[in-house]
Design brief:
heterodimer, A: mainly alpha, 3 helices, 0% strand, flat, B: mainly alpha
Chain lengths: 90, 117
């Protein structure tokens, strides 16, 4: 019972974090602001999958987190290269 | 015992996450936001993953190994992505905040200054 309250509190906190990142993605005055917020959102989602794994007791949600971290990293690198004005293979 | 310790570590990590995201909202320009958000959120997520590993304890070895793999991966990739994003932001011509005092990267880019020194 107590642990369920703790998990729900953790979900609320993480949804607030995602909301702040989405605010910056929508509002951000320049393109690099949005790219930074997308990178941070990816890491916050990894944290989310960790807590889902903790609540359900299933280890495979952590696989989702690892895959999400890899894809978020590749996306951030691609956005950075695009901002720098280069192709992905330079 | 493990579960109480895990909860405490979990909330320390969530506190770091929230402070990083507040920095993402409140700070004035791209570089300040990048340094606040990247460092705080990386540390917070690593602490949350360690708390999941502490919860599992010795009962579930795959969970612990996956958590440690995820921590190692995030600790490697997140600073790399932040560095690349900062370079990209600088190259795309985003100005610094007006109260920022030093821009060593731009000074290194200008050849005249480097030849004089």
């Amino acid at each position: 019972m107590m642990t369920e309250v703790v998990y729900n509190l953790a979900y609320i906190v993480l949804i607030a974090c995602c909301g702040m990142c989405l605010y910056r993605i929508g509002r951000g005055p320049t393109a690099p602001d949005r790219a930074v917020a997308i990178d941070i959102l990816g890491i916050v989602v990894v944290c989310f999958t960790a807590i889902v794994s903790l609540q359900t007791g299933k280890a495979y949600y952590l696989n989702v987190g690892i895959a999400w971290a890899i894809l978020s990293f590749i996306g951030a690198i691609a956005l950075a290269k695009h901002l720098e004005g280069k192709g992905f293979d330079e | 015992m493990n579960s109480v310790l895990g909860m405490v570590i979990l909330f320390i990590g969530l506190l770091f996450n929230v402070l990083g995201c507040v920095g993402l909202i409140r700070l004035p320009d791209v570089y300040n936001r990048l340094q606040a958000a990247t460092k705080c959120v990386t540390l917070g997520t690593c602490i949350v993953l360690i708390s999941v590993a502490v919860h599992a304890g010795g009962e579930s070895v795959p969970t612990v190994l996956k958590c440690l793999l995820c921590v190692a991966f995030i600790l490697i990739t997140s600073p790399t992505a932040a560095h690349a994003l900062a370079r990209g932001a600088h190259a795309s011509g985003v100005k610094l905040w007006k109260k920022s005092v030093v821009d060593k990267y731009a000074e290194d880019q200008e050849p005249g200054i480097r030849e004089e020194t």
